[in-house]
Amino acid sequence: MNAEIVAAGTELVLGERINTNSAYLAVQLAEIGVTPVLHTIVGDDEEAFVAVLKRAVKESDLVIITGGIGPTLDDITRQTAARVAGVPLVRDAKALERIEGLFRSWGREMKPSNAVQADFPKGAAVIDNPRGTAPGFRMRVEKCEIVVLPGVPSEMKAMWEASVRPTLVGASGEAIVAKSINCFGAGESDITEAIKDMMAPGRNPLVGDTAEDAVIKVRVRARAGTYDEAVGLIEDDMAEVRSRLGQLVFGQDDDTLESVVGGLLISRGLTIAVAESCTGGLVSKRLTDISGISAAFIQGIVAYSNASKTALLGVAPKLIADFGAVSEPVARAMAEGARKSAGADYGISVTGIAGPTGGTPEKPVGLVHVAVASRRGTTCRELRLRGDRAQIRDRAAKHLLNILRLDILSGD
Amino acid sequence: MNAEIVAAGTELVLGERINTNSAYLAVQLAEIGVTPVLHTIVGDDEEAFVAVLKRAVKESDLVIITGGIGPTLDDITRQTAARVAGVPLVRDAKALERIEGLFRSWGREMKPSNAVQADFPKGAAVIDNPRGTAPGFRMRVEKCEIVVLPGVPSEMKAMWEASVRPTLVGASGEAIVAKSINCFGAGESDITEAIKDMMAPGRNPLVGDTAEDAVIKVRVRARAGTYDEAVGLIEDDMAEVRSRLGQLVFGQDDDTLESVVGGLLISRGLTIAVAESCTGGLVSKRLTDISGISAAFIQGIVAYSNASKTALLGVAPKLIADFGAVSEPVARAMAEGARKSAGADYGISVTGIAGPTGGTPEKPVGLVHVAVASRRGTTCRELRLRGDRAQIRDRAAKHLLNILRLDILSGD
Questions:
Q1: Which of the four pLDDT bands, split at 50, 70 and 90, describes residue A78?
Q2: What does the pLDDT look like over A241-293, one tens digit per residue?
Q3: Which of A368, B33, B126, B296 could bridge to A396 as Cys pair (CB 3.0-4.6 Å)?
Q4: Which residue in chain A has the smallest CA separation from B301?
């Protein structure tokens, strides 16, 4: 069973907004065995939209459209779908009542323009929108099912989950399950070298990889008659990949370095204090992204100036004068000072030159020192990072979290 | 002059990676008067790719393809373009030499598989890739020009800028210029209400808006014979929008609240210290995203625990006991403590309940107090924010930065 995913919106086709709906739906479809073969973005040009949809219903078993069902003149998905189906638009009394009720509940008057959101191609089934005013709809055109959802991601996802996904599960007669094993600390080529025999094209499971912001995700994707069979197929490969890559593996699927480290701290009852210079709060921010981290995270200090390093972390001014703020002795003193001042199990630190200015021949942009202090001593590491300011800060934070992860695990 | 933008990659069509290349190219094309009418994403299915490209060259004057020109088996853009043009692939000796030279300069041996990156449809012009091993190419098929660039965004953008954009400027005979005026502090409907007469469809300039993460961008887009004429057309509208929206406007185009606030601090020689609880370092992180901020940013303190609020910011334990950590008195004490301990011109603070847990009937998830302290006194604000943990943290940081912005401006 094949699907095309269409996103409607002039702001999308003009590049003013990034389309994330189609990727979300693609992952969802693949999980239930529907193969996404094409994504299309089209603007509010009705002729172009009609042409896309006429072609799509011929080529695919399922077409999911997001967007273009708001109340404004450039919302043309309703009439486009009606034209392709060769039916008129008709107003749905129940849907209209629901929209009017929503406005009443907000204490606002419904503008007449909002009534068009209750218009649907004749014969279409309405899909309730529990989070907004624009209902979706679904209809059959020849052998193809068309499903129309709003462009607002939160509304689209809620409607997909509640009303569309359940009706499609099992419809394709097969399932594709994909899982990823997430790695950090080596380059993409080193990782693929270790598993290249598993990456042969056409193999089932299919093993591949993607690299994004220095995190390498090894993906194992299996196709089978049922979801359970597909899961069974990937389990051996997942174990093999994990065993070959060892400590480079920090988690799987949606795991991030911070979610894994946060989980380790919380589950082991460990506390932490953070001292940052060049990352400017990014390490603390990432750790506190994790719900429940208040059990572990005591405090973070962004000691951007040298005076702050001394006043807040107790770094001796002589250390800074002798070695410079970006140096192993200062990173060590920051981590140990952070640990001591908070009375935490762990103190971690990062100091470096994120650029674009501030580099020297001896201490170039990208030079970063990180340190992890615990009762078992202090681990320091010098990093030489490439990229722009944002990339250097990102990589520095990731390396620090990864060294902390390995340190926690080594204490087991 | 119309264009279709095609992104090739199985990881894109399966939704495992978000496509940002097409949006980048769409904005670039619109600026030089080429209208993007369709974006398509296709995987490594050669028949599907051929069908897309055959249709695209009939419908558009220009087709830009990104991706699928790497060395692996699933990189099929070269042969697809050759099939659609009806020509064979031929190896380009100069391109091959350049790829071999790159590997030599890295001290690595070129694998035989990399040689396919020097294969091009016969008659195509090679586009140098200054940042990677995969050269692009361009060719004419019937009345359509096809331009092929790599999928790696940094390589694609460098090649677009250096080799493609300059050859297309002026080719369309018209220019579209779009600028945005960035607003914060009011809902989308309040903002559009103030400018609704300017938002009439078909008007030139066309005025529209997009909302993303509580920032409303009012876009003014003009079409004219030349770039300069189009710029002239939008200037009056830009001034009118700014005058109607007043203090809600914080900047334009790529300006963010932090870049604007950072710029204000640096240009006025003001210093700042940050005290955060629920945002966990996000405010400090955003301010230190700005290159050159070290002149203004002294330190940030993430006082997550009550003990840290007392030890690092001097918040009286009785204040926390009497009013709770999430309260106006504690926000005020945090901001004033941050200012004092750093000796800064400004101390700013945020304390709140980001959720999903920790809320009570009196202090629900989303309750946030922010404060801005300066020599002119302390401004406090209570916020009631909606959304998930990440959204509440994001909005809290934005409100705080915006209040700081207004405070700095009010001191003029």
A1: very high
A2: 999 999 999 999 999 999 999 999 999 999 999 999 999 999 999 999 999 99
A3: A368
A4: A301
| pLDDT higher than threshold 90 for residue A307 | yes
Cβ atoms B273, B338 nearer than 8 A: yes
pTM assigned to the model: 0.83
Contacts of A205 (CB under 8 A, 6+ apart): A220, A221, A222, A233, A234, A237
Q: Which residues of B touch A280 (CB under 8 A)?
A: 284-285, 287-289, 297, 300
CATH topology for A2-168? Answer: Molybdenum Cofactor Biosythetic Enzyme; Chain A (3.40.980)
Q: What is the dihedral of CA B200, B204, B209, B210, to 10 degrees?
A: 130
- Report the residue of chain A nearest B387, measured CA to CA: A154
A11/B283 touch (CB, cutoff 8 Å), yes or no: no
User: For the residues A312-318, what does the mean pLDDT come to?
Assistant: 97
Q: From B402, B399, B379, select the one nearest B391 (Cα to Cα).
A: B399
Q: Is the peptide bond before A205 cis (omega within 30 degrees of 0)?
A: yes
Span(s) in chain B for CATH 3.30.70.2860? 175-252
Q: Which CATH architecture has domain B175-252?
A: 2-Layer Sandwich (3.30)
Please state the φ and ψ torsions of residue B307, each to the nearest 5 degrees. -60, -40
One CATH from 1.10.10.10, 3.40.50.720, 3.90.950.20, 1.10.3720.10 for B257-410: 3.90.950.20
Pinpoint the residues of chain B covered by CATH 3.90.950.20. 257-410
* Interface test mutation site (partner A, options B18, B24, B27, B41, max chain A beta carbons within 10 A): B41
A-B contacts (CB, under 8 Å): 225
Shortest Cα distance from A311 to chain B (angstroms)? Answer: 9
Residues of chain A within CATH 3.40.980.10 domain(s) are 2-168
Q: Which of A4, A16, A155 to mutate to test the interface with B (most CBs of B within 10 A)?
A: A16
Confidence class of residue B41 from pLDDT cuts 50, 70 and 90?
very high
* Position A71 pLDDT exceeds 90: no
